Amino acid sequence: SFGVVLVELLLRREPIFTTVTGSGQNLSNYFLWELKARPIKEIVAAQVCEEATEEEIKSVSSLAEMCLMLRSEDRPTMKQVEMTLQFLRTKRLTSSHAAAENDEEMQSLLHTRSEVSCESLANNLGVSANPESGNSHKCYSLEQEFISSIGLPR
Questions:
Q1: CATH superfamily of this structure's domain 2-76
Q2: What domain of life does the UniProt record list for this protein's source (predicted)?
């Protein structure tokens, strides 16, 4: 079932897995039982927690829970599942695109701000920030330090 596949992805386990006691456990039953007993962030695999937001995890786990309903009338159709997953995917792509744009804008602002700071520092010191002048100083930023130190061994 689609619910089992979603749970496999969330927990990173096989449909029938071996517990710490050595017995075989049904992943669907385990998931539904644990969902009642613990918060979802404690149940899902660490990799999932790192890669997804809590809202995304809750949405997918809720969808998986609906797909695992015993009565077929209570389960969503494949089309409903597909549409829900497509919506979550679009939402994630939109938010990551917006975050990338915000990051680019922030980088641009930081770069502009560091140039202005260098120029004002040079003016306060009575030194020209013009690279063509003979006594120009190279402005240095912490950002440049971080970037240049990336390749150094630790």
A1: Transferase(Phosphotransferase) domain 1 (1.10.510.10)
A2: Eukaryota
The structure tokens listed for 93 are 């792509």
Q: Tokens 């912490």 identify what position?
A: 142
Per-residue pLDDT tens digits for 39-64:
999 999 999 999 999 999 999 999 99
Q: What would the pLDDT profile of 66-117 be if each residue is shown by its tens digit?
A: 999 999 999 999 999 999 999 999 998 888 767 666 666 666 655 555 555 5
Length of the chain: 154
CA 139 to chain centre: 34
Alpha carbons 154 and 64: distance in angstroms, whole number: 43
Check residue 154 and give its pLDDT: 46
